[in-house]
Amino acid sequence: MGIISGGTAWRWSYRRQNRAMRISLRNIGAATLVVTTLCLVVILNRDNSSYDLSTGISQRQLPSVLKADMIHSPDDDAQNPAPTEVPPQPYCERNHSMVNVSDFDTLPHHIQDFLFYRHCRHFPMLLDAPDKCGGPEASSDVFLLLVIKSSPPNYDRREVLRKTWAQERQHHGKWIRRVFISGVSDTGFEQQRLNKVLRLESREYGDVIQWDFADTFFNLTLKQMLFLEWMEHRCPSVRFLLNGDDDIFANTDNMVDYLSGLPDGNDGSKHLYVGHLIRWVGPIREKWSKYYVPVQVQESNSYPPYCGGGGFLLSGSTGRIIYKMSHSITLLPIDDVYMGMCLEKAGLEPVSHFGVRTAGLPVPSSKVDSYHPCYYREILLVHRFLPYQIYLMWNRINEPNLKCDGSQVSNL
Ligand SMILES: *[C@@H]1O[C@H](CO)[C@@H](O)[C@H](O)[C@H]1NC(C)=O
Ligand SMILES: *[C@@H]1O[C@H](CO)[C@@H](O)[C@H](O)[C@H]1NC(C)=O
Ligand SMILES: *[C@@H]1O[C@H](CO)[C@@H](O)[C@H](O)[C@H]1NC(C)=O
Fold first, then answer.
1. Does the residue 180 lie in any domain?
2. Which residue ranges traverse the bilayer (predicted)?
3. Is 89 a pocket residue for ligand 3 (Cβ < 6 Å)?
C-alpha cells in the first residue's frame, strides 16, 4: 500500500517549513513599513465602516496618521522612499521580563521571540475584505467560507486555488466564498514588493486579508485568532468554514453536499468541528525538532484532542465560541492544537471525518496511478498538492465522462 503525500510527520514538516524560512529581520522590515507609512500622510482615510481597519477591533495605540494609509493607494510604491531601519513597531511592546524565565538563554531564538511577543494579539490590518460576506446581516447567505492561510510569496498557489476548488460560486444553490489570510514576509524592498503583490491581488479579487505581523511558523495561531476576530465583525452569521492551508486539495463541492445534509440538521448554528482527528499526543520536547515546545512554553505533557491543521471544517457557531474561549487561553504556537484547547475549554469535541486525509491517501497498489481522479472524487480533502496537481485534479474530477468502476476506490 502506497501513501500519497507521505505520513503525518512529512505533512507537518512541509506545512510549516515554507513559512518558517522567512523569519529573519522581520521587525526591522515591519518597522520599515511604518516609517514608509508615516511619510505618506496625504492619503485620505477611506475607512468608513465601524470596524476599524487599521487596528482590528481595538483601536489602540496607533497614531491616526498610520490609520490613514493602512490601505495603500494602488500606485504608491513609486513614491516610497528607501527602507530605513527603525526600532520595532510601537503597537505591541516585547515583554522583556521573559528573560527571567528559567533557562531563557538556552532556548532557540524563535522560541525566545515567541515568548517575547506571546501577549500580542492585535496587529494593524493592511488589507481588508469588508464585503466578503455582503455585510454582517447578509452573512448568513454565505454557506461555506474558505479561509486559506497563505504567506505573501505563495502567489502561484493562490492563483491556482482561485480557478479551481476555491472558486467563488454557488453549488446546489449554496454560496461558497473565499478569503486568504496573510501576515508580512521578509524585510526591506522584498517585503515592500510582496506587500504590493497582495495589494494588487486584493484590488483584483477582493479576497485577501493581511495584518502587519511577521508571517512565520510560530505566528500561525496569531493569524488564526486574528481571522476569527475579523469574522466576528465581517461575517458573524456565516454558516460553515473550511480552515486550511494553501497546499491542500479540497473537494469543495463534496463539502457543501456533506454540510447540507448533516444528521442533526445543523445549519451552522450548532457545534461542528471535523477533520483528521489527533489524540493522545503531547508537545515535542526534542530541541532539534521544528515543533519543539519547551516546558517554558507549555508545562503540561499532553495536548487535548484536535484536528490536524492542514484542513478542517467547522460551523460558524463553533468558530465564534473558539474565539471567545481564546481570550482566556495563553497563546500556544501550534495553531491546530490551540484550537483544540479552545474547544476543550468550551466542552466541545473535535470529530474525525474519513474524507479528510491530511496524512495522505492509501492506494491499493503501486500499479495504480496514485493520482487517479477516482480516489479524489469521493474525498473531502487531501494535504499537500503542488499547484499543477491541484489544477489537473480539479479538472479531472469534474470531467463529465470520468468513469470510476469501483476497482480504484475499493480502499475508500
Ligand atoms: C511578561 O512576562 C512576565 C514573566 O513571564 C509575566 O509574568 C507577565 O505577565 C508578562 N506580561 C505580559 C503583559 O504578558
Ligand atoms: C528579572 O528578575 C530580577 C530579580 O527578580 C529583577 O531584578 C529584574 O528586574 C528582572 N528583569 C526583568 C527584565 O524583568
Ligand atoms: C510574530 O509577529 C510579531 C509581529 O511582527 C513579531 O514581533 C514576532 O517576532 C513574531 N513571532 C514569531 C515567533 O515569529
1. yes
2. 25-44
3. no
Nearest C-alpha to atom 3 of ligand 2 is from which residue?
Answer: 100
CA of 96 to the centre of ligand 2 (A): 9
Regarding the beta carbon of 98 and ligand 1, being less than 6 Å apart is answered: yes
- Per the structure, the complete domain to which residue 314 belongs is given by 125-352
Mean pLDDT across the chain: 83
Residue with more model confidence, 206 or 22: 206
The three cell numbers locating residue 252:
469543495
Count of beta carbons in the 10 Å neighbourhood of residue 81: 10
**pLDDT above 90 for 229:** yes
How many distinct structural domains can be found in the chain? Answer: 1
DSSP calls for 321-347 = HHHHHHTTS---S-HHHHHHHHHHHTT
Distance CA 262, CA 271 (A): 11
pTM above 0.70, yes or no: yes
**For range 400-408, the mean pLDDT:** 76
Dump the DSSP string for 5-16. Answer: T--HHHHHHHHH
Give the SS3 label for residue 66: helix
- Confirm whether 218 is domain-assigned: yes
| Residue 236 falls inside a structural domain | yes
Domain for residue 407, yes or no? no
Q: What is the pLDDT of residue 407?
A: 57
Q: Which of 23, 98, 117 has most ligand 3 atoms within 8 Å of its beta carbon, as the pocket-test mutant?
A: 117
pLDDT score recorded for residue 358: 78
CATH of the domain at 317: 3.90.550
In the chain, the amino acid numbered 311 is: G
Contacts for 45 with CB less than 8 Å, ≥ 6 apart? 67, 68
Q: What is the DSSP string of 119-138?
A: T-----EEE--TTTTSSTGG
